[in-house]
Amino acid sequence: MKTAIISLLLIPCTFFAQSFDVNNEPSIGSLVSLHLCDSNANILAGTVGSNAVWDFSQLSGIFGITKDVQILDATQDANYASFSGATQLYDIGGNLQTFYATTPNGRISQGFVFNEVSLGAVVASWNIDAENLMTYPFGFGGNPLIDNFSGTVTSGLTGTVPSTGSSVAMVDGSGTLMLPGGNSYTAIRYHLKDSANATVFGTNVAFVRDVYEYYDFSTSNLPVFITMKINVSSALLNNSSTVILSKDQPLTFVGLEEAKIPSFTLYPNPPTESLTLKGLNSGTAYAIHNILGECMEEGTYHHPIQVSNWPVGIYFVKTNNGVETFIKK
After folding, report:
1. pLDDT band at 282 (very low <50, low <70, confident <90, very high)
2. CATH says 265-328 is which class?
3. Burial of 212 (0-12, 13-18, 19+ CB in 10 A)
4. Which of 128, 105, 124, 107 is CA-nearest to residue 116?
5. What does the CA dihedral 171, 175, 177, 178 come to, rounded to 10 degrees?
């Protein structure tokens, strides 16, 4: 864990009353249920500094949907073997599980687990150089924390590959958080942006996490509001997801986007000899690219595609109906 502290010249170096320290660390078993909100909302990333006003009072919600944000015992999790040294597991709504340990000096992360739409369950283990999330006391007016970390990334499609990354963490504002229902909180905002990179079958894959968490320690040691954006990208793959969660329920609602139902499926997956595109009409145009973006085959679909001689790797089947992924082992 190679950490650098950089002076933030535009912010006075005076800590406000609210800051992260050992006294407000959430304990194992801590839990809040937050309301799922419209992911298209403006996340007010540029609203920083003292006396900030973060106005989410008109935010729309997804009717009836809540997500649990909780602290679990990391040693009891099925993935614990990949995160030796972690004592806590910070679970944001089942979308992202961060493994970490608390010391008198701050929080150290051993990695995370994230379910990615194309790669499946991604286990990022910083087993060589852990990631520094904050140093105590950590509050507004302090210095940004810049850190480098390294280890491995594992998924069913990629196997286990080396990975390195960097992060910037800071409390970038202190002020008033306005949530639906006329509720307001005296809050500080913790901002973490980190990027992990791995080379998979000859091309770079980047995982970027950008999280804003709002805390009012008079209310809870867990966040009262969260915006989280995760992007996974490579030469061909580019998937992004955003989650916004609020302590207070919005008063207006938008429809929950229907879960993606593939317009066609691949069988078998992974294939050994041939690949069948189930659900496509005969004569449908298709193209298959590798993870480098190189076209392996294209044409109109009439019968199973022979892949027995193809190199090991990740492939993308593209049609007018969508894109599906398979791995040739």
Report:
1. confident
2. mainly beta
3. buried
4. 124
5. -160
Before 162, cis peptide (omega within 30)? no
User: What are the start-end ranges of the H helices in 252-313?
Assistant: none
Identify the DSSP state of 100.
E
Query: Which tokens sit at 234?
Result: 């490579």
Q: Which residues of 276-288 are buried (b: 16+ CB within 10 A; e: fewer)?
A: bbeebeeebebeb
Nearest C-alpha neighbor of 254 from the set 38, 40, 36: 38
Q: Are 232 and 116 in contact (CB under 8 A)?
A: yes
Are 186 and 176 in contact, with CB atoms under 8 Å apart?
yes
Cis status, amide bond into 311, omega within 30 of 0: no
Say if residues 139 and 20 touch (Cβ distance below 8 Å): yes
Spatial neighbors of 221 by CB under 8 A, at least 6 apart, are 24, 25, 26, 27, 30, 215
* Residue position matching structure tokens 């090991």: 312
> pLDDT per residue over 154-197, tens digit each?
987 778 999 999 999 999 999 999 999 999 999 999 999 999 99
**Domain-wise residue ranges, the chain:** 2-254, 265-328
Find where tokens 């913790």 sit.
190
